[in-house]
Amino acid sequence: MTTAAPSFEDLTRQLAAADPANALEVAIKATELARAETERAKEESRELASVEIGENGFVAKTLGGLYQAGRMYARSGMVKKEFRNKVDDCAIIVEYAQRLKISAFMLFQHAYIVHGNISFASQLAIALLQDSGKTHGPIHYEFTGEPSSPDYGCTASVKDAETGTMLSGLKVDWRLVTAEGWDKPKGEKRIVSKWITMPDLMFRYRSALWMIRTMFPGVLMGMRTVDELEDIGADESKPVANSLADLTDELKSKAKAADPPPEDPAPEPTVEPPPEPEPAPEVDRQEESTLMSKDFVGRVEKAKTVKPGIMNLERWAEEYKGDGRLHPKDYETVMAACLKRRQELAAAEGANA
Questions:
Q1: Alpha carbon separation from 120 to 71, 106, 172, 206, 333 (Å, rounded)
Q2: Rounded to whole angstroms, what are the CA distances from 3 to 6, 178, 325?
Q3: Are 47 and 65 contacting, i.e. CB atoms less than 8 angstroms apart?
């Protein structure tokens, strides 16, 4: 037969009989602990009550509910490692998802940290436009210009749901890509730009984003995409202190730097030449050159005219060789392809004459 556990009152009476001097103090501490546990349970219950399940997942009604949802995602192993155990970051994602009226879990799958800034995939931006009800049908992409010319580019357009008219964004072409430096290698490892490896896809993404920002700015609400932040580059602005401890450390560092130097004369500094900059890894540059040469050859094969098509490609190859981005061997490959294409175009022109 199972014996019931003694109640708090029974334990207090037993303690009073065994040790009357300490019974009152123990009872007071036990009461305080019980009250604290009760308050904690009430607070947790209030936070849970401030989070509802809506059409797009969790909906936080209060700041406490927002943090409650953030804690759940921060503990989850299904979110990306950049957000795990970061309650504040997860709470911000949940709040942003509510503003966009989409599932927070879906937003986590498309969220990235680039140069310390939050960003999202370009596919998500396009999906948000199509799901907003502001447009009718898919986005239309129009490519104009010769594939080998600076004017080659893409313009995105879509039919407005309210008026039925086609709205077009700004054209993104090679001249703009080159002027903004989007096609240059990225980061310290000099990773080859996606504008070199998959140009047509990047033209579609960037022209669609520009069209959304100019025609439907409320869809993205200032959201930046991964590709945009990678093209912009790292933010060199000074980081802001995240806590009182960080601010204290920063002030101590400034005070230490402002202290006057010691009165003892310092030894004469030795003048040394500046160190030679470390060259970029040869493997990365060779890989970049190989990819560029393949892209050049592909454009050469699509060229329909010698002028300006082939001539522009030859000029660009000469410039890339001059600044070291195109190795001599790859440069010769490109020029051989240009010569072959010249002969093919000349033969085709003679046959049509």
A1: 21, 11, 21, 13, 38
A2: 9, 83, 84
A3: yes
User: Distance between CA atoms of 264 and 36, rounded to whole angstroms?
Assistant: 60
SS3 168: strand
Two tokens, residue 104: 């927070």
In which band, very low, low, confident or very high, does the pLDDT at 2 lie, cut at 50, 70 and 90? low
Q: 99-137 burial, b if ≥16 CB within 10 A, otherwise e?
A: ebebebbebbebbeebeeebbbbbebbbebbeeeebbee
Looking at per-residue pLDDT, the higher value among 296 and 202 belongs to: 202
The share of the chain scoring above pLDDT 70, in percent, equals 72
Gyration radius (Cα) of the chain, Å: 32
Query: What does the alpha-carbon distance between residue 124 and residue 147 come to, in Å, rounded to a whole number?
Result: 28
Structure tokens at 165: 């008219």
DSSP sequence for 5-71: PPPHHHHHHHHHHH-HHHHHHHHHHHHHHHHHHHHHHHHHHHHHHTEEEETTEEEE-SHHHHHHHHH
- Exposure of 6 by Cβ count < 10 A (0-12 exposed, 13-18 middle, 19+ buried)? exposed
Residue pair 26/15 in contact by the 8 Å Cβ criterion: yes
Q: What CA–CA distance (Å, rounded) separates 223 from 122? A: 10
Neighbour count for residue 166 (Cβ, 10 Å): 11
The 10s digit of each residue's pLDDT in 123-180 is 888 988 988 889 999 999 999 999 889 999 999 999 999 999 999 999 999 999 999 8
Q: Are the beta carbons of 142 and 153 closer than 8 angstroms?
A: no
Q: Which amino acid is at 259?
A: D
Integer Cα distance of 97 and 58 in angstroms: 10
Q: Following DSSP, what letter does each residue of 228-282 receive, concatenated?
A: HHHHH----SPPPP-SHHHHHHHHHHHHHHHSPPPSSPPPPPPP-PPPPPPPPPH
- Residues ≥6 apart with Cβ < 8 Å to 62: 47, 50
User: How many whole angstroms separate alpha carbon 230 and alpha carbon 112?
Assistant: 11
